[in-house]
Design brief:
4-stranded mixed beta sheet; 3-stranded antiparallel beta sheet; 12 helices
């Protein structure tokens, strides 16, 4: 009797559909498919080995989700995408080249796998692992804690800001900035004794970068690339007009001014806030 019975192959396909096209040897064995039958399917091109004990079903066409899912299956029970790979999965950072990061909640378990960077984390708790796009992954909060001190600081800041934009629940305190320019502006205020503003605040339909609410002062810190062109120019003018009609004084400072004229900006802010020089 042939090993390729339609109901069995349909069962394989059903599992693969929910796992971005991949299955594990353990799952195949639960369907009654032994080592010999797996080998025959590999020879026939129905299964394609991705890692030891993990196969793509039907074709080799790559996708990032398939690679992440295959890495999790290759690392066994309790494994989850983590660190920079989890940041990419959640959309907090662009995908980072190199091995896929996978964490397991134990010091024991499977050895090294090609293309996988395995993190043995006994501190990884059940509540810090979830699923995203059907792939086991560390939560956004755990992901940011994992990349802190591992990835460059600017990438950690970027991931944290993106998590706030997505309104993910975080276990870390942030300054609510969404760019290095906004962070530089806050540092300028601290260095020059300007009272700290609220950061990224909604006023009507607009979100202003910085706000001193009591003094009705709004400040925008502008990158040239984001504010050049006719449409951006018209949008900025409409925004300023509406904010002024709402009773706010609006000041704009460029990236170059923030970096090269901090004392002059601080003096202008103190004047606008009614502070003694």
């Amino acid at each position: 009797m042939s090993d390729f019975r339609a109901p069995t192959d349909q069962a394989i396909a059903d599992i693969a559909i929910g796992q971005h096209g991949v299955v594990s040897t353990a799952q195949l064995r639960l369907l009654g498919i032994d080592k010999h039958a797996i080998h025959k399917r590999v020879q026939a091109g129905r299964l394609h080995r991705l890692h030891h004990g993990v196969y793509a079903v039907g074709h080799r066409a790559p996708s990032r989700e398939r690679e992440w899912m295959a890495a999790v299956l290759a690392c066994g029970k309790g494994a989850a995408i983590s660190h920079g790979s989890a940041a990419a999965l959640w959309g907090l950072l662009r995908p980072i080249g190199g091995p896929i990061d996978v964490s397991i909640p134990t010091h024991t378990g499977r050895g090294r796998r090609r293309g996988i960077r395995l993190h043995r984390c006994t501190s990884l708790r059940a509540g810090q692992v979830t699923e995203h796009r059907g792939i086991p992954a560390t939560t956004p909060a755990r992901t940011i804690a994992d990349i802190d001190g591992v990835l460059p600081p600017y990438l950690v800041r970027r991931a944290t800001r993106q998590a706030e934009i997505f309104r993910f629940q975080l276990d870390v305190e942030t300054d609510r900035t969404r760019s290095d320019l906004e962070r530089d502006f806050l540092q300028l205020c601290r260095r020059h004794g300007v009272p700290p503003p609220e950061v990224n605040v909604k006023i009507g339909p607009w979100t202003v970068d910085f706000l001193w609410r009591g003094e009705r002062l709004a400040v925008e810190a502008d990158f040239y690339d984001y504010h050049r062109g006719r449409v951006a120019f018209q949008d900025d003018r409409a925004r300023e007009l509406d904010l002024r009609r709402r009773g706010f004084d609006v000041r704009r400072f460029s990236e170059l001014q923030v970096n090269e004229q901090p004392a002059e900006i601080a003096a202008d802010l103190r004047d606008a806030l009614g502070l003694a020089s």
